Amino acid sequence: MITPVRRPFVLATVAALLALAVAGCGGSSSSATTATVTLKPVESKSGSMEGMSEGEMEGMSEGEKEASSAEPTEGPTGMLMAPSNAHGTATLTQKGDKLTGTITVSGLEPNSDHAEHLHGPDGSCKPKKMVTNMAVVLPDLEANSKGEATAKVDFTVHQDVVEKGYFIMVHEEPTPAAERDQIGTAPASPAFMQALSKNPGILCGDVEVK
Ligand SMILES: [Cu+2]
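^ inputs. structure came back:
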């Protein structure tokens, strides 16, 4: 007749241990989470390339491809997207509330500046998952005369952002001068998000935790 008395105690102990285990996985943990991000041009499903076969696209020169989809097109989530010949990589590391990393892109227009953000949660670079909400406003990429740019990240964030469901979006235009004080903040203000919804995305990369 011990069992009816003891069971609640055992359950409570199990619950407490579970709670501890879950807490250990949170942002307050001292262990670091690192992700690598591959930045690629955004494919627009509603662009004028729609209906073309892979073979037809292969036969086109880069110039022809660009010309056929030079106008920004709106994706299913409402995010504008524009074609690009750039590509890049990023590493992001979060340890507690510290977010550090490096974003490197080449193939940009020489001497051009580009806003970039970490978008999420619950998003990805799949057209239907490109959520517009910004988790962190990243520093602008400032391309040199060769079209190469590197941006360093060293911010305090108040949520876990190096996780599946977040993605980096590089935009065609720079961050407006009036909004530059929001770089490094999270989350961005609604007014800022509204203003930047008119800035097409050119490169996208999913956060993939190692
Ligand atoms: Cu963005």
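The longest strand covers residues 32-41. The chain has one domain: 27-209.
thumbs up if we can close this ticket
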